[in-house]
Amino acid sequence: MACDRRTILRAGATALALAAAPAFAGGAWAQDAKMPVAVIGGGNIGGTIGGLWVKAGHPVMFASRHPEDLKPLVEKLGPLAKAGTVEQALAFGGAVLIAVPYKAYPELGKTYGASLKGKVVLDAGNATKARDGDLAAEAESAGIGATSAKYLAGARLVRAFNAANYRLFAQNAHRSGPAMAVPVAGDDKQALDVAATLVRDAGFEPVVVGGLDAARQFQMGAPNYGRDVTAPEARKAFGVAE
Ligand SMILES: NC(=O)c1ccc[n+]([C@@H]2O[C@H](COP(=O)([O-])OP(=O)(O)OC[C@H]3O[C@@H](n4cnc5c(N)ncnc54)[C@H](OP(=O)(O)O)[C@@H]3O)[C@@H](O)[C@H]2O)c1
Predict the structure, then answer these.
(1) Could you give the strand order of the β-sheet that contains 205-210, starting from the edge strand earlier in sequence?
(2) Max intra-chain CA distance, the chain
């Protein structure tokens, strides 16, 4: 059979893409392959948590409006880290961490709604009046989970990594002794499972507080926000069983 140059090039490109993509079998990532993650926002929290995933072996694409500014971050993290546009990162990631100022959510949801639909999204955003204006009042009255679900409609949302300062995450990841708890909340069981794996891979212990509405309990300003506690201590504080 004749095999022209274009066919050979196409076959080569497919082989390269397959080599770069971790194996996906039967609805789960093969045991030895780490899920690629998109981190939207490569600042304090995105850079910190995304960096922990890279160290754990996850391919991570960081994205922002200015991906060229993320070059120093990805160079420091090594070959598993890449920088790209938001669209590129959403296509790359099996799961997504949203780590941008909350005021960007409405626009993000409008522009990338189609790509976010059906995606497992870990939502680390907090709304503050000074930075995010009226969204802070909305998150306060409707709850941060419902507010994120409104703006990122269609995403399989899990609230995660919002409840502590990035420096605390950086200091406590994979610490010796009992792990630091990371409260998570979401309505989608499979998405919660993916988030729990990613929380563990980053070096923490996930504590499922409940459905998306339960994210109120650890949103900014709530008593369980900003606490450096172990998983048993967190379960006790939230009143949830193991
Ligand atoms: N800092 C913390 O310790 C901490 C802890 C927990 C949760 N959080 C929450 O995490 C979010 C991020 O906080 P941060 O402190 O990491 O902020 P940050 O350091 O200012 O970083 C924000 C990142 O988001 C990008 N960005 C902003 N608007 C964007 C848009 N419309 N589309 C795509 N990328 C955009 C920025 O890059 P460009 O401007 O170049 O686009 C930057 O890379 C906030 O909601 C915050 O409340 C923060």
Answers:
(1) 81-84, 60-63, 37-40, 95-98, 120-123, 156-159, 181-186, 205-210
(2) 70
Contacts of 52 (CB under 8 A, 6+ apart): 169, 173, 201, 202, 203
CA 41 / ligand 1 centre spacing (Å) = 5
Mean pLDDT of 156-183: 98
Task: Band the pLDDT of 23: cuts 50, 70, 90.
Answer: very low
Locate tokens 């950086």: which residue?
170
Report residues whose beta carbon is within 6 angstroms of any ligand 1 atom.
40-46, 64-66, 69, 86, 99-102, 104, 107-108, 124-126, 162, 165-166
Q: Which of 60, 64, 140, 199 to mutate to test the pocket of ligand 1 (most atoms within 8 A of CB)?
A: 64
**Full-model pTM:** 0.90
Parse the chain into domains and list their residue ranges: 30-238
Tell me the pLDDT band of 18, cut-offs 50, 70 and 90: very low
Least confident range of 26-40, 116-130, 210-224: 26-40
Question: Does residue 145 or residue 15 have the better pLDDT?
Answer: 145
Residue nearest to atom 20 of ligand 1 (CA): 43
Q: What pLDDT is stored for residue 27 in this prediction?
A: 44
CA–centroid distance, 231 to ligand 1, in Å, is: 27
Q: What is the pLDDT of residue 242?
A: 85
The whole-number pLDDT of residue 75 equals: 98
Pick one of 3.20.20.140, 3.40.50.1950, 3.30.750.24, 3.40.50.720 as the CATH number of 30-238. Answer: 3.40.50.720
Distance 48 CA to ligand 1 centre (A): 11
Determine the distance separating the centroid of ligand 1 and the alpha carbon of 64, expressed in angstroms.
9
